[in-house]
Design goal:
Required for the export of heme to the periplasm for the biogenesis of c-type cytochromes. By secondary structure, the chain is mainly alpha-helical. The chain has two helices and two strands, in the order ααββ.
Length: 90
């Protein structure tokens, strides 16, 4: 088995297509990094919203157990959006 490139310089030159190859690699890596940052940011916002909602429920006198997950339309996935029932609706 022979190597595809004879030197590191040839590897980085990519047979004359270095600009296009490394630009594609950079765009891909930047896109993935952006997705990771956005996911972490959304997670932080979601958790902050949950904490705010729980704090409001405690202030309203429900003791923090204001909601409970119920079986959803997909066979018991209570963690799906919109599948929350009020404790006082039992």
């Amino acid at each position: 088995m022979s190597p595809a490139f004879v030197s590191w310089t040839a590897f980085f030159a990519m047979g004359g297509y270095a600009f296009y190859v490394w630009l594609a690699v950079a765009v891909t890596l930047l896109s993935l990094a952006g997705l990771i940052v956005h996911t972490l940011w959304q997670r932080r916002l979601l958790l902050a919203g949950i904490r705010r909602q729980q704090a409001r429920a405690r202030r309203m006198g429900r003791g923090g157990a204001a909601t409970r997950p119920v079986a959803g339309p997909n066979g018991g996935h209570g963690d799906m959006p919109g599948n929350i029932a009020r404790e006082d609706a039992k």
